[in-house]
Amino acid sequence: MKDGLQLAWNGVELLLKKAEKSLAGTPFQVPVGIINTLIELKTAVSDNNNELDAQITRTRERLDIVKDINDNNTDSDEFMEEFTKKLAVKLSDLDQMAKKATWKKTLENEQDKSEVNSIFKYIDEQTKDFQMRLALKIDQNTKDLQQSLDQLQLDSWPHSDRAMYDANPDDVQTLSRELCTQNTRVAVLEKIRSWAQDSSFSCPQVFWLTGHAGSGKSTIAYTIAHDFGEGKSVLNILQASFFCSRQFENTRHQKYIIPTLVYQLAYHSQSFAKSLLAADKMSVNKQLSKQMQGLLIGPWKKALKNRSSELPPYLIVIDALDELEGKAGAQFLRELLLTINDGHLKGLKFLVTSWPDPALAQLCRSFPSNSVCRLQDVSQEQADKDIMTYLHDALPVFQNKPELEELGKKANGLFIYASTAVRYMSSGTSGEQHDLMRQLLNPTNDMKFSDFSYATGLIDHLYHQILSEAFVQVQKNHIPARLKILHTILCAEERISTSVTAGLLSTAKNVKDMEERADNLVKKLHAVLYIKDDKVFWYHASFPDFIFAQGQSSQIDLTYLHHPSSYTMDMSCDPASHHALLAHSCFDIMLRELHFNICNLPSSFLDDSQVPNLETCIKEKISDVLQYACQQWAQHVIKSIPKEHKNILPKIGKFLEIHVLFWIEAMNLLQSSKQCHLMLQQVFECITKSINETANFAAYFSASQAALSTPHLYISSLATWLNDSSLTQGWKKFFPLIPSVTGDRRMTMSQVNILQTNIVGCVAFSHDSKWIVSGSYDKSVRVWDASSGTEMQQLHGHNEEVTSVAFSPDNKSIVSGSSDKSVRVWDASSGAELQQLHGHNKKVTSVAFSSDGKWIISGSDDKSVRVWNVSNGATLKQLIGHNKRVTSVAFSQDGKWIASGSDDKSVRVWDSFSGAELQQLNGHASYVASVAFSPDGKCIVSGSDDESVRVWDASSGTELQHFNGHRNGITSVAFSPDGKCIVSGSDDKSVRVWDLSNGVELQHLNGHSGSVRSVAFSPDGKCIASGSDDKFVRVWIWNASSGAEMQQSDGHTSYITSVSFSSNSKWIASGSDDKSVRVWDVFSGTLVQQYNGHNKAVKSVAFSPDGTLVVSGSDDRSVQVWEASSGTKLQQYNGHKGGVTSVAFSLNGKCIVSGANDNSLRVCDTSSGREIQQLNGHKKAVRSVAYSPDSKWIVSGSDDNSVRVWDASSGTELHQLNSHTDYVRSVAFSPDSKWIVSGSDDNSVRVWDASDGVELKCLDGHSGYIRSVAFSPDGKCIVSGSDDKSVQVWDASSGTKLQQYNGHKSGVTSVVFSPDGKCIVSGSNDKSVRVWNAFSGAELPQTISDTAWVRSVAFSKDGKCIVSGDSSMIVYDTPYSMWTSTYNGWIVLPLTSHQVMWLPDHVCNAMYHPLNTLIIPSHDYFHVDLSFSTLGEQWAQCYNSPI
């Protein structure tokens, strides 16, 4: 048995050896042989003392666990030493008892037995305490915690540093707080401490401390936070705190509470910090319930799984909920209690303090007595005792004086009265303190306030006396100014200094005098106001409440200084009236002090972060009072008395003329420009509609790259703001030397860009145009502010991607459809899920509300359309008729008809009431993706994967219009509110707007980098929203009037596949997938001729050597010859049995060779169209053909991997070159006709002897398909372009790689040398054309931004021009270059990093480059003119002051 006990005590023995090591060098020693003593004791009690035996066993087991602590864990060192000291003392006591007698005899003595039991109980408690302290330390201090914090970047979250109990006053403005005076509030503090440390399951998680204003709640809360945060006598279990206060923006708004608590929890707990990494960070800007769920509940529940069982509950302190604005305090407590009742926050405890507000009291009515403390219920005796303890400590001059006892009785248990009285007296000398005490205790003053309630009347009485003292020596005519000072301090939106107070109430001439008055007043009101960090604070919220409460209590009697008579003065403040005064003052200050380039920024080439000593300059140039006016004017306008709004309007009008731009400039320097839009929008909703354009401009600037450099407010944002209102034109008159952005066509601007976490599948506007709802592949539905892009709601419930969303007509509900087969209805304001509609057995693709909001329709992959009752979720009808999935549904405005589109290529019209099918609209060649009714219900628009938009007569089913222009499938269509326009989105990444009456394309909106999934017009017709695979929701400003002025475009409507210069370089021919060939004047861009004859895509064009003819080859299998000048078709050759891919003239122009997908080459006579030869041999499509310069040979490349050489006169195949192992994409002859070069999908370039077909070289170096090859004019070099994004130059004779040009961001599709051989031009799928120095390999400063994939590039014969093709053609003047553009919209100077100008997407995607001489068609693009601009160090000269 002894051996068994020895084994059981092994763990304790190991622990004691650690203890000996820990206690080395200290007076504490572990007794030798103590283990044997413990074993003997255990043996003695095993048989006859169950209680003691159980205690010893429990203690041994706990000690056994502690022995597993890692010796290398430095976190335990401090605790281990403290613990082992206590352990050594108690073990020594046991050892001494063992030496006196045997344990059997000792235990017979009840007193000794009780002592033994107490020793083991003490050891057990200390061991448990040690375990918890260590667990806390480990959770708070690990490398993992720091790594998680680094990833979270919590400092960027919208938390409130000043709300934390231990906020560092050196870093942030904070309120002055004090601990409870020693030996006061003993019972209350003990009750809270006991609750906080109670780990039992039955202990409530919330403790509510309540009491009247001034009863000391905040001091108690601060003391508890301090004790559990850094005290020595208890476990430091405080994890977070939030002390609410009206005195700061971020302590009086509910939205800061959860982010601030979570911020602190993450810093204290590595398990929570890790869990927070996976949380939805967007929740920080959500409503309370979303914040609670996303930031606290979810991460905390996840953290609990890894939380040590030894950890005690963590404590969170939230003080003064009643100081939150509105009813936010009750709302927060309600949400917290509901969350706790649902069992979501186990392991957390909340100490909450507030006034006994009825709403809060109702919430806490079910709290058990051990988790509520009502300070008003504390016995009068105890309250008076605490007050006296405090007064003795604070007023030593009155020790043992009866006045102190009298003051204590007068306080009547109200700590705010006692503390205010102390401050009132303590600043004076001993004699002055006695005088002030006598005034306080003067019984004659009590009579006026006998009718006041207990708490309010007592403190109001004191405030009344303090104000009387402060104003008694002031002349009557000076009192109004001092009252304005006091009212301004209390009404200010943030805490301000006396100098700012004076600045808000005076002109520059008398500001010094006003500041002296303010300083004097604050000094006299030291009992209620104090200065900290140069800002004026009030000690307690009851003081501003007293001033704002108009009534008898705020009236004081004063005596004239030089006359015995008295008068009454009302100290109260009407906040709305004073806010109006401050609004006027803010505008006066901004109009007086704001001016252009307020900080003398040295250069427009510098970001603000690069300007030396900018922070110092901002402090010098933007005064504190100007900063206050800039940041707070809107709040004062909103809170001002309504009847004053009409008087503020003239100042707003004056402000908008030009100073509003200087205001945005100052706000950007203060890093607050993102607030401009919100402030203007609030005033827009409150007072005036004319401010809306300014709000949009502010959002446009602050959300752009231009905001990084404040000068670009003017140089970039104002220059590219294309609204032609009188307001905008007025601004621009003051800035004649900013860049000019002009164009024949006014493009629609992207106003707001919203980035989501996944593909945006659907968007819709609310019916008041204020909100946008979007559905995403991340399974969420989100609601956004349409003007600013701010996220307002996030609705979670769907468990697969959301495919369709819509607002109800009253904007109160949102309906969504999802791949999870459900339709859901949500409360738009709260985000609550109202209905789940189940019935579809496959993916729901489309949903819509009826115009009266009573019905919902849905379409599904299950081929059906369902009609639902909104009120009860019942299915009313199921419409069956489509034989493939239903992709889109829509109600007519009158609710009588339903339209549906389907993969079966049809649009169907149904009777809403009977469910009968009325019409079947057939015409699309592929599936119908989207349908919509016109506002009058007479027309239906449909968009299809066949790349067309069609308009139908809803009653007859007749096709009215057919719009072509998109280059890929249509995904979404919608009517404008006036029914005159249609908007369409496509897989070609564009949004287009069409004129319904004539089919003209009015706008082409580029900006998305992925397929556009959904488009919508705002109900006011001012905006278009689009959602895309690129995860963006974009909101575009739509100018209907400018769109209506558009004419039919002369340009191609699809990809340009081939371009060619005439021999005199005056004309360009282009072929396109739109089936046309067009000829353009190089200098004017005028369309000379359009050749319409092909009925499929044109793949290749070429001019005859004399420039009089054009040949074209098409997918329609024909080769057509045209007279270049007249456009007359001269010949058509139809011999090919497959699409023609390549055409070329012989040197004398008498013959044409063509290659086709029918595997053949054919040679025809140019004049007669007669086929001369058919060259057969290739086994797959021919991709490229060319004549040798001497016209003796023809070379061809094919998908059969071969290059073949043919005798041009006989058609005999001379050579078959078979070294390539994949498709041959490009072939070309050397200038002397001796060599052939070929490029292939096998990633190689090969050089062949044209005379015998021998392979001379294989040029390996590319890592992607070779798309284009060409010889230099002297034949010494070869250039190749590849899908590996590089352009490479080779020595034609040796095969050595001479240069590799890297710069393209996507595959290179076309390369060519200039006629003089000095330059190389390359075209790419990255939408750019680049020009390179052929000798040095350097990229010339001539990178050219294109608008789509570049399919073809060519030099003019004289080498002066380059032409590139996509869906337009851009002609570049090569000798001149001024700037290049970057991916993020900046124009930069070559060979420097200077940022000249930022351009938004709508300009970047459609602009002339300095090298461009022409873009064809020319009227769709912007000209950016910098020639008259003052930039860099001269940027400030762009402004022409009106003075």
Give structural notes.
- The chain is of the alpha+beta class.
- 30% of the residues lie in helices and 28% in strands.
- It contains 34 helices and 74 strands.
- Strands 2-3-4-1-5 form a five-stranded parallel β-sheet, sandwiched between helices. Strands 11-38-37-36 form a four-stranded antiparallel β-sheet. Strands 12-13-14-15 form a four-stranded antiparallel β-sheet, with no helix packed on it.
- Helix 5 packs antiparallel against helix 7, helix 11 packs across helix 12 and helix 18 runs parallel beside helix 20.
List keywords for this structure.
1443 residues; alpha+beta; 5-stranded parallel sheet; 4-stranded antiparallel sheet; globular
Write a brief caption for the model.
By secondary structure, this protein is an alpha+beta fold. The longest helix has 31 residues, at 110-140.
List the helices and strands and how they pair.
Blueprint: H1 2-8, H2 10-22, H3 34-46, H4 50-66, H5 77-100, H6 103-108, H7 110-140, H8 143-152, H9 186-197, E1 206-210, H10 217-230, E2 238-243, H11 257-268, H12 270-277, H13 288-304, E3 314-319, H14 328-341, E4 348-354, H15 358-363, E5 372-374, H16 380-394, H17 402-411, H18 415-426, H19 430-441, H20 454-471, H21 479-491, H22 498-505, H23 511-524, E6 529-532, E7 535-538, H24 542-548, E8 555-559, E9 566-570, H25 575-593, H26 614-621, H27 624-639, H28 645-669, H29 674-686, H30 692-702, H31 712-720, H32 726-733, E10 740-743, E11 749-755, E12 760-765, E13 771-776, E14 781-785, E15 791-795, E16 802-807, E17 813-818, E18 823-827, E19 833-837, E20 844-849, E21 855-860, E22 864-869, E23 875-880, E24 886-891, E25 897-902, E26 906-911, E27 917-922, E28 928-933, E29 939-944, E30 948-953, E31 959-964, E32 970-975, E33 981-986, E34 991-995, E35 1001-1005, E36 1012-1017, E37 1023-1028, E38 1032-1037, H33 1040-1044, E39 1056-1061, E40 1067-1072, E41 1076-1081, E42 1087-1092, E43 1098-1103, E44 1109-1114, E45 1119-1123, E46 1129-1133, E47 1140-1145, ...
Parallel strand pairs: 1-4, 1-5, 2-3, 3-4
Antiparallel strand pairs: 6-7, 8-9, 10-74, 11-38, 12-13, 13-14, 14-15, 16-17, 17-18, 18-19, 20-21, 21-22, 22-23, 24-25, 25-26, 26-27, 28-29, 29-30, 30-31, 32-33, 33-34, 34-35, 36-37, 37-38, 39-40, 40-41, 41-42, 43-44, 44-45, 45-46, 47-48, 48-49, 49-50, 51-52, 52-53, 53-54, 55-56, 56-57, 57-58, 59-60, ...
Helix pairs in contact: 2-4, 2-5, 3-5, 4-7, 5-7, 8-12, 11-12, 12-13, 13-14, 16-17, 16-18, 17-19, 18-19, 18-20, 21-22, 21-23, 21-25, 22-23, 22-27, 25-27, 25-28, 27-28, 27-29, 29-30
